[in-house]
Amino acid sequence: MDAATLLLTGKAKTTDSIYRRVDSVDAKGFPPAVKNLAKQSAGIAVLFETNSNIIRAKWTLPAEVYMHNMTPIAHSGLDLYCFQNGKWQFVSVAKPAKGTSQNQLIVQHMDGSMKQFMLYLPLYNGISQLQIGVQKDAVINKPAQPAINKTKRIVVYGSSVVQGASAGRPGMAYPAILQRRTGYDVINLGFSGSAKMEPELAAYIATVQADCYVLDCIPNPSPEQIRDRSHYFIKYIRGLRPNTPIVLVETVFRQNGLFDQQVGTTVRRQNEEIKKTYERLKQEGVKNIFYIESDKLIGNDHEATIDGIHLTDLGFMRIADAILPVIKKAMNEKK
Question: Is residue 27 within 8 Å of 187, Cβ to Cβ?
Answer without folding.
Answer: no
